[in-house]
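Methods — Computational structure assignment.
A single polypeptide chain was analysed. Its primary sequence is given first, followed by the predicted tertiary structure written as structure tokens.
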Amino acid sequence: MTEVMLHIYDVTNSDSEKTNNTIVQINKIFKDGIGLGGIFHSAVQVYGEDEWSFGFCEQGSGVFNCPSGKNPMYTYRECIVLGKTGLSILKVNQILRELSREWPGDCYDLLSKNCNHFCDEFCERLGVQQLPGWVNRFANAGDTAVEIAENTAFRLRQAKTEIVSASKVAYQFLAGIASNTTTTADSSGSSSKGNGGPLIFQQPAWFKNLVAAGAKPSSSGNALENGDDDIVHNLSPDIPR
């Protein structure tokens, strides 16, 4: 049984000293002040004096090692003992070779596949507890926000497609009603005129325009095709007008 230790750094690898100081202050406020999290780099030490972590590179594996607590790119913060592993040094070396193949440097992603994600997986294979939640909380929150945004955009596109489809169905339905009404009106009108009967209600022009071009009813005095005087209601002669 050997101890597994997690070494944590403040991410101060920017060329700007102002940016580095800002990150240190953020970590002090959000981690030391309220225990929420911060912007951290982490590495795992097991068997020997080196720590193992993951970073970006254009070619080859992103897995690398350096003397524990002495990564020159960052500012050392603290060490946390995660437990003890019962794996032999040979088994640990085998796991590191597997991880080196599975974690190429060009797949590094700040939100979804960073050094903290690597350490989480390494610790899981060693059989010890994973990283405390605060170590990678900012990245996980950012990744979740991106996923929510993508899902929201997809749902909006889907809703737009459904609205367009529903509009087409409604248009076809209205067009069918207009066609059937016109046919019935022509047939009934001819029959009524031939029999000397009363005329039925004629189809107003705004409805024809709505079906044909999607226009709303006109508010002008020309909204009716033949004028109000040309429209005759089929009312019973017993009802006073």
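Note: The chain is about 45% helix and 15% strand.
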